[in-house]
Structures
1.
Amino acid sequence: MAVRTRFAPSPTGYMHIGGMRTALFNWLWARRNRGTFILRIDDTDQQRNMDEALGPILQAFRWLGLDWDEGPDRPGPNGPCFQSQRRHLYDAALQRLLADGHAYRDFEPAAETQRQREEAEQQKRVYVSSRQSLLLTAEQIQQQLAAGQPCVIRLKVPREDRVVIDDHVRGRVEWDCSLMPDPVIARSDGSPLYNFATVVDDAAMEITHVIRAEEHLSNTPIQVLLHRALGNNTPEWAHIPYVAAPGSKEKISKRKIAQYRKNPQFQKLFELGDAVLGRLGVDAAADALSPVMVAYSQQVGFIPAGVLNALVRIGWSYDDQTEILSLEEMITKFSLERVIRSPAGLDPDKLISFQSHWMHQLSVDEKLEGCLQWLQRAGLIADAADPEVRQYVAKVIDLAGDRLRVYGDIFSVDEFFVADDAVQMDQKNFEKRVLNATGAVELLRQVQQLLVGLPEYSAGPLHDALQGILQQRGLKPGDLFPALRLCISGRVQGADLFRTLELLGREKVDRRLSGTLSRIPGTT
RNA sequence: GGCCCCAUCGUCUAGUUAGGUCCAGGACAUCGGAUUUUCAUUCCGGUAACAGGGGUUCAAAUCCCCUUGGGGUCACCA
C-alpha cells in the first residue's frame, strides 16, 4: 500500500521548531517511500483570520523546501485540507456512531462532570464517566432535545477492552479501557473535537502512518477506539519524541523564552540572533520572534540545509558516524526504526555548526544573493541590483570567508558599508592599542603618509610596505597591525588586514585614519 | 495523583532487537598544541558517560526485577 502521511498544524500564526521537525519526519517518510505527504489544517477551533495565521506556517514549509502533495491550496481526491470545510464528514460519522450505539448524547451538566472528577480524585479513585444519560429512554432524549437541553456527544468506551498498538518507535504500548472516561467527540454546538475530526480525516484521507510527537501518545487509545467504532483500518503509529529545550528534558516552549535567555547553552544563538535582528530593526526581545519559531532562523539568515540538518538529527541518527546530510540524503537514509525513544534537546551550538558547514558549501554567488538581502534590509546598501554594489559585496563576502556562518553575519563586517564617520570604535582596545601604546600615534601617522603615496594599493605591496616599516623600526606586528585595524574598522580582529585595506581603498583608509587620529587629544 | 513514556560523555547520539570484538565509538561544545599579522578556518591531541541496587550468566551498557530520577498527558484546546 502506498504510504500516505500528513502533518496537521492548527493555524497559530507561527511555525514551531518542534512541529517543523515532526513535519520533516512525515515528509521524509512519505518521500522515501514514494508516497504522499499531506498538509492538513486543523482549524476546528479557530475563529481568527485564517490567512494571517496560516501564512507563516506555509511560508516555513516553502522556505525549507518541504512540498506537499495535498494541502490548503491543492485539495486531494479526498476533499479539501481544511477541517473547517469537512464538517459534513464529521456530522455523518457522528450520526453513524450514534445510531450504532458507539456514541451517546450526554446531558450531564459540565459542572456535574467536573464535580465527579474532583470527587474521584479526592478519593484516589479512577474517574470514569457516570453514563447517567445512557439511562434515558429514546423519548426522554427527544424531550430533552426538544426542550433545548444542551448535550455533548461522547464515545462509549468499551470498558472491557484493551487497546494495544505496535508503535514504530515505542514498540508495544497498551491501555486498559476500564480506566478511560468517555471522551467528548462533539461539542454541544455539534462541532467535532480534535480527536474525532482527526480520526475521520485520517481514515478519509487514507493516512497509512501517523507520525506525530509523543505528547499525542495519550490520545492514541481514544483514536484507536474511534477507528474501531467507525470500522476503519487503523493507521500505523510512530510517536516520535518531542523536541526539548536545550539541555533539558522539557518540551521546548514559546512561553519560556525569557528562561532560555539565561540558559548558557542558548547563549551563542541568542547573541547571534540579537546582533542580526537588531540590525534589521526587529525587536528580538518581543514575543513576535524567538528561536522556537522557524521564522527566527530565517530572519537571522540561516539557510534551509543547515536548519534541516539540525532538525533531522534531533531524535534520529543514521549510524554512529553520519552527521552531515543533505535533504536528498535524508530521503534515502531516513527510517522510523532509527528514531530514538527519549526526548532530545535542541542543541543551538550544533545548529550553528551544521549551518556553518552548509553555508561554506555555497558559492560566492549564492552567498551574494543572501547577503544583499540582509544588507538592503539593514539599509547598508541602497540598491541590491546595482552591478557595482554586487561586485563590491561579492568581494567583501570573499574576504569574510568562513566568518560568514549566517547571512546576518555580513553585519559583522559592516566597516565595509558604513560611512567613514560612522565606524563603531572598540573604545577599550583603542585606548590600549593606540592611546596608551607608546609611539603608536606617531607610528600611525607615518603609516598614513606611507600609504597615501604607495604606488600600488593592493594586498601584496601593502603587506610589504607595512612590514618594511616594522623592520626599519625594529617593531613587532602586534605594535602596528591591531592599531591600524582599529583606526580603519573600529575592531581589533577581522579578516586579512592587507586585503581589508585594499578593498576599502586608498581614499577611505586615508580619511578614516585622518578622522581617527585627529580626534586624539594632545596631538597635532 | 491516575495513565503512559523515557534514562550512555556538558549536549546530540552509536552500541540494547540476536549478551562477548565496548576498561564504551562519533559529532558539537570545551581545553591544549600546530598553522596564521589578529580573529575565523584547517590540522593534531586531551578531559569527559553506561542513574542506583539486586539478580540471570563463564560473560551485561545490552536480559529480568526493584528503586530513584526525568518527562508527557489527563478540556465542550490542538
2.
Amino acid sequence: MTTNASRVLAHPSRDEIRVEGVLHALADPIRLRIVLQLAAAADEQACSHFDLPVSKSTTTHHFRVLRENGVITQFYRGTAKLSCVRTEDLDALFPGLLDSVLRGADLQARRLGGADASSVALSGTAAGRVEQP
Amino acid sequence: MTTNASRVLAHPSRDEIRVEGVLHALADPIRLRIVLQLAAAADEQACSHFDLPVSKSTTTHHFRVLRENGVITQFYRGTAKLSCVRTEDLDALFPGLLDSVLRGADLQARRLGGADASSVALSGTAAGRVEQP
DNA sequence: TCCATTGTACGAGAGTCGTCGTAGTTTTAT
DNA sequence: ATAAAACTACGACGACTCTCGTACAATGGA
C-alpha cells in the first residue's frame, strides 16, 4: 500500500488556523528555515531532505508545530513523510502574510550573511531563492 | 523637565531588528491587540490608554517585549509612557509584513467574533479600523 | 510639601518550549 | 525472514514565558 489509513496525520481545517499560531510557528529560526526551503521547492519534500542543525526528534517536533498551526500539510509516502506549505489556505486567510514573511526572511539573510547567510538562511541547494527575478 | 535623561529607554537599532523577533513579539494575542490599537491610532498612545485583561506589571512586560524586538518605540512624557509602532523601520526591513499581519488579524477578528470580536480584536474606541476603505 | 498618577523592579509560580537520547513502528528492499 | 531507512513516542532537562503581587521611583499638580 502506498498510503496507509492507520497513518493519517491530523491537520487543522482552514477555519481553525489562527494568525497567532502561524506567527508563533514562523517565529523559530529552524522552522522559518524549513518553510523557506519548502516554499522555494515548489513541490513537496521529505523531512530527510532537510539538513538541520538539530537531532531527528527535534526535527519531528518542529514539523509537527508547523503542521498543527496550519502552516504545512504532511502525508506519508512509503517510509518518507512529505511536507508542503498550505499556500492556498494561508493566502485566503491572511493575504500577503506568508509572502512578506518569506521575503523579509530572505532580505534579512542577504543583509546579515551575504552569500552563505546565517541563522535563517538555507544551507543546501535551493539557498535563498525566494522571489528573485 | 519634559524628557528626563535618566529615563531613556533602550531600543534596538534598525539593523538589529530580526524577523524572528518581530514574529515572536506579534505572536502573542495581547501584544497583537496592542499593536493593532497602536496602528489604528495614528499617533502615539500611553500604556494606560489600553484596556487589557492583565495586570499592570504584565502590561509593562508586553510593552517591553514589543520594544525590545523593534516593533514599537517608547518614550516618557511626564508620568506617562507613550508608544508608537516603528512603521518606517519595519517597512524598510520587511516590506508588507506589518500590514499583512495587522490585516490578517483584523480579518480573523471579523471572521470569528463578528461585531465585538474576541481574543485579538480591540475592545475600545478604534475597534477594527484597519485598512477598511 | 504632600499626594495622586503612572509606570518599574523584583521575586515567584505555573506553564510552555526547544532540545536530546533511547526505544519503538511502519514500510521497502534484499 | 531479515535488515535497512525514515520517522515517532516518551521521558527528561534547562531555559524561557506569562502571570501576578508588592514595593518602589519619577513626575506633576494641589
3.
Amino acid sequence: MAKGRATIADIARSAGVSLSTVSRVLSGRESVIPIGPETRARVLASAAALNYRPNQAARTLASGRSQAVAVLVHDISDPYFSEIVRGIEDVASANQYMVLVCSTDRDPVREREYLLRMGSFPTDGIILAAGGFEEEAGLDEVRSLIERGVVIVGVARHGLPIPTVRISNEEGAREMAEHLLQLGHRRIAFIAGPPGLTTANDRLAGYRQALREAGLSADGLVLAGDFTREAGQRVVPHLLRSTPRVTAVFAANDKMAIGCLAGLRAAGIVVPDEVSVVGFGDVPSAQDTEPPLTTVTIPLREIGRQVMREVLQQLGGQPPSAALSAPTTLTIRRSAAPPRSGKPG
Amino acid sequence: MAKGRATIADIARSAGVSLSTVSRVLSGRESVIPIGPETRARVLASAAALNYRPNQAARTLASGRSQAVAVLVHDISDPYFSEIVRGIEDVASANQYMVLVCSTDRDPVREREYLLRMGSFPTDGIILAAGGFEEEAGLDEVRSLIERGVVIVGVARHGLPIPTVRISNEEGAREMAEHLLQLGHRRIAFIAGPPGLTTANDRLAGYRQALREAGLSADGLVLAGDFTREAGQRVVPHLLRSTPRVTAVFAANDKMAIGCLAGLRAAGIVVPDEVSVVGFGDVPSAQDTEPPLTTVTIPLREIGRQVMREVLQQLGGQPPSAALSAPTTLTIRRSAAPPRSGKPG
DNA sequence: TTGTAAGCGTTATCAC
DNA sequence: GTGATAACGCTTACAA
C-alpha cells in the first residue's frame, strides 16, 4: 500500500483531461454523466498504460462506500456457518464486494467488541449470522451503526431492530418430532442448545409443541446441551439410565447428534435398532456418519445468498424486505427407525 | 458510514487543543511523542463524551495501513480451509486486524481476479492459502502487490517468490504409505488430487517413494481424483475390478477417503476387513465416519496462527522467517488394518 | 461534455 | 509538549 502507484492525477496529465473527467470514466458514473467517446478512450488507454488501480481507501473516504461487508458468525470453522458465509461470498464477489469474517464464539463480549470495531472499520453492511440471543448485548452498538447508515441484516430470530432472514426452527423441530412420533416413538429425549440462544429455544419449543399435541409430556426428557459434539456424548449415560428407556433422541443440532452417535457406539448401543438419533441443520458431514443422519435440512448456503442480496438491495436504496425466510425440510436418512418394541399409544 | 459522527476536529474543539494533539493521543503514537498528562486526559474525556470512533478509511489513506488482511482459500466452506482461516482470525483479531475471505474454487481465473482486486482494496497483507499450482497464474499480480509494500505469505509449496509455511505433504504421505506397508499391504491404491496442485503432487510423490523403497511398483495403482467426495466414490468400481484385488486405498485427502468409504459401503464391502482406507488432512469429520478414519493430521489451525504471526512480524519490519513449517503426524484410527490374506512380501 | 475546487478524516512534517 | 499545515487519492457539487 505504498510505492509509486499511479493516481487519477497521473492519468489526467497523461490523457490531457481533468481529474473529474478521469474520475467519471473510471468510477462508472459515466452512465449518469455522459462522456465523449474519444475522451473516454484516451482516459482508458492512459489508465491501462499506467497500470492504474483505484485506491479503495480514498474512494471510501470520499464517497462513504467501502465495497465491503462484515459477517458475524459463531465460528467460521463450524460448517454450519462457513456454509452461510460461502453463500454470502458468492453474491458479494459477484457484485464486487469483499467479505470480512468475525468469529464471536457466541460470546456476547466478543460480539460487542466486533460491533464496536465495526464502528471505525469501513463496511457498508453487517450481517449478524451468529444467531440471536434472547437478551441482546450489542443493542446500542447496532443502533449507532444503523444511524450512521450501515445496513444491518440478521439471520435467525434476534431481539434487534433489524430485518432478518427467519429460519423455521420451530416448525422444523415440530415436524421432526412428529416424524418420530409417527414412527411409533413415545419416549423421545431432546438435547437442548445453549439456554439464551433463540435458535436453540425455538427448536425446543417445536419439539415441545409436537409432544403436547400428541398428548405427551416432555418432563424429564429435555437434556441440557450446548451445541458441542461433547454435549452429545455426555448425555449418553443419562439416556441409558432412563426408565422406561428412551427410544429416540432429538438433538438440537447436528454436532450434538453426531457426538451422541459416537457415545452410543462406544456404549455398544446400535442405532437405529436400539435407539433412534436425529439432528438439526444438515451440515455436510451428516451424510457420512453411520448410520447417515436423519435431520432437518436448512438451506444454509441459500440463506447466505439471500441475506447478501438483501444487503445489496438496501444499499441500493430499496426498503427492507418484509418477509425473508428460509424453509426447512425433513431429510430422512437411516438414523431413525421405528422403536424395537413399538407398542403404539 | 455517513451521518454526524464525531471527528478529531470536534474533539480538538471540545478539548481546546489542536488536531495534531488529538491525533497523537488517539492513534497511540503517544509512546513516541510525549503528551502532557493533563492534556491527554482532556482529549480522552472529550473523545468519550462525543462517542468518537476513528475513521479507518481516513487512517488508511493517510497512513497506508489498513489493519486488514485478505486470505485466499479454495473454498471457505471446506473444513480444511475454514480451520486455517480460524487460526488466522485468532491472531488477527487479537492484534486488531480484520480478515477478508476470498474463495477461489481453485480456479486460476478467480484467483487472479481476487489478486487484481487486492490491488485496489486496502489490505496490509495477503495470505495465499488456496494451495499452490505447479504453474502459478498470478505471478505478475503478486509481484506488483509486493512492490507496493503488501506483505504476502503462502501456505504450502508455491512457485511464487514469497515466504511460505511448508506442510510436510511428501513426508506425511510417505509415512502413511509405510504404515500401510508395515501392516502387510502390498497392493495399495492411491487416489490422486488435481493434477496441477503442488499439495496433491507432493502427497503422490511421498506415496510413490514409499512404494519404491519397499521395492514395489505403483503401476496401475494411481487413480485420478480431484479432492472431491465424488471422486472418492467414483473410483470404487475400479478398485473392485483390480486383480489382484487392492487391499488398501490411500486417498490424497480426507474428503475423497470419506467418499470412498461411502462408495465401499454401498458396494457391500466392509472396511477395514476387506479393504483399508486412509486419508490425508484430518478434518474434524474424519473422526465421525465409520470406521473412524486413519489419516495424516495437519495442524490446520496452528498453521493459520503461524502464518498470521509471520504476516504481523513482517508488517512490523522484521525480515521474512527463513523456515516456516508444520509437521504432520499419523493418526491411527480404525479404517486401516492388516490385509485379510496378508501374505507378507 | 468537461473543468474547477471543495471536501472526506487522518497522519505526518515542520516549526515553535 | 503542542500547533499549523500539507499531504493521502478520490468523489462531487457547481460552473462553464
